[in-house]
Backbone:
């Protein structure tokens, strides 16, 4: 068990800044996902926590102890690279024993931990098998077992499901989450895939260009994105973002869009350039003389349980969800009704959520 803290962590590669003065508390026992586009500094951050890379400045503590410049094996943290990697010439037992033999753990302790790990992963019956004949799921369990058997203070995983096909990824996501629920070992998991992040995380840390933009639970990240980048990056189809025509001041309960007053939750900040955000599932189609904005159906996409309807309005193209029963015809004149409680406002200048 471990709480990991990073303070003003900074990593400069000659003339390129990979991680910018980032601070973060990774709470004991939580599953934390670092999420962001390729090149945003996720791997560099993880490698600094692991000790595979030293920061240019800043500090990393593990349960209060400064580990910033300790070597990887002095930190008691297990880095899981690709879950699939197994030694083919060793059996299941040999693969599980390997990390412990490497650390010089006594024989009797090795046997005990291998048995415990096999029980946790329900692979006890496979201990004396070769890894070559195993199913994909069992191979993954053995690979995970190699990290668990060390009983580290924390697990670090860098896109461990990256090479798997979609169906297997989902299966392994569920396995990883169940395992974490049982072991409660602090886990830092890196991915660029928001679905993986949403499925796994207690906390999501969204990064872009070396900076931490938001750290929150999945609900907070989805419903109250801290910046316009987070709003665009999280959720498919993405949040509708509409520039308003007039400033807002504290106390306002509407914003001016396309010469209409659109109801919003009570504003308590000032913004000269405000952007209204609303997710497609909080926009409903209604009659052309109802709703807060009108427009023409431009495009319809089928998702089985619902349609995603793109409507061309005076405020630009907006997406709404429609009930699966009736397919809205292209060209149809419709109204859009916003669920006012779900509207969020951003300042276009700072790109931040209005307080
Ligand atoms: P991510 O894992 O989010 O895709 P990385 O942490 O791997 O991003 O990389 C962040 C940025 O730092 C990238 O632009 C990458 O090219 C750069 N970078 C990473 N490692 C090095 C290095 N050893 N030398 C120079 N630049 C690096
Ligand atoms: Mg990476």
Residues:
């Amino acid at each position: 068990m471990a709480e990991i803290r990073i303070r003003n962590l900074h990593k400069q590669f000659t003339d390129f800044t990979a991680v910018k003065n980032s601070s973060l508390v990774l709470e004991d026992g939580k599953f934390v996902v670092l999420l962001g586009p390729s090149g945003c500094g996720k791997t560099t951050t993880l490698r600094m926590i692991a000790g595979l890379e030293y920061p240019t400045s800043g500090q990393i503590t593990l349960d209060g102890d400064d580990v910033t410049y300790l070597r990887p094996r002095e930190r008691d943290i297990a880095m899981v690279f690709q879950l699939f990697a197994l030694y083919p010439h060793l059996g299941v037992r040999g693969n599980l024993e390997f990390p412990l033999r490497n650390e010089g753990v006594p024989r009797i302790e090795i046997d005990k931990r291998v048995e415990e790990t096999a029980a946790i992963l329900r692979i006890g019956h496979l201990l004396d098998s070769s890894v070559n004949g195993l199913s994909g799921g069992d191979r993954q369990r053995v690979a995970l077992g190699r990290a668990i058997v060390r009983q580290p203070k924390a697990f670090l995983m860098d896109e461990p499901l990256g090479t798997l096909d979609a169906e297997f990824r989902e299966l392994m996501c569920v396995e990883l989450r169940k395992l974490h629920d049982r072991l409660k070992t602090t886990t830092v998991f890196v991915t660029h895939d928001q679905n993986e992040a949403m499925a796994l995380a207690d906390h999501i840390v969204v990064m872009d260009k070396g900076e931490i933009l938001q750290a929150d639970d999945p609900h907070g990240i989805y419903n109250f994105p801290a910046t316009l980048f987070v709003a665009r990056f999280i959720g498919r189809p993405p949040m509708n973002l509409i520039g308003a025509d007039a400033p807002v001041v504290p106390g306002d309960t509407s914003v001016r869009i396309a010469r209409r007053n659109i109801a919003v939750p009570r504003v308590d900040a000032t913004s000269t350039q405000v952007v209204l955000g609303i997710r497609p599932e909080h926009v409903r189609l209604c009659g052309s003389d109802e709703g807060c904005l009108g427009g023409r159906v431009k495009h319809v996409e089928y998702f089985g349980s619902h349609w995603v309807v793109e409507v061309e309005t005076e405020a630009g193209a907006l997406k709404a969800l429609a009930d699966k029963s009736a397919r809205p015809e292209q060209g149809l004149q419709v109204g859009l009704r916003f669920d006012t409680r779900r509207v969020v406002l951003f300042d276009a200048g700072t790109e931040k959520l209005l307080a």
Remarks:
- The domain at 4-231 is CATH 3.40.50.300 (Rossmann fold).
- The chain has two domains: 4-231, 238-347.
- The first strand starts at residue 4 and ends at 13.
- Residues 13, 16, 18, 36, 38-44 surround adenosine-5'-diphosphate (ligand 1) (CB under 6 Å).
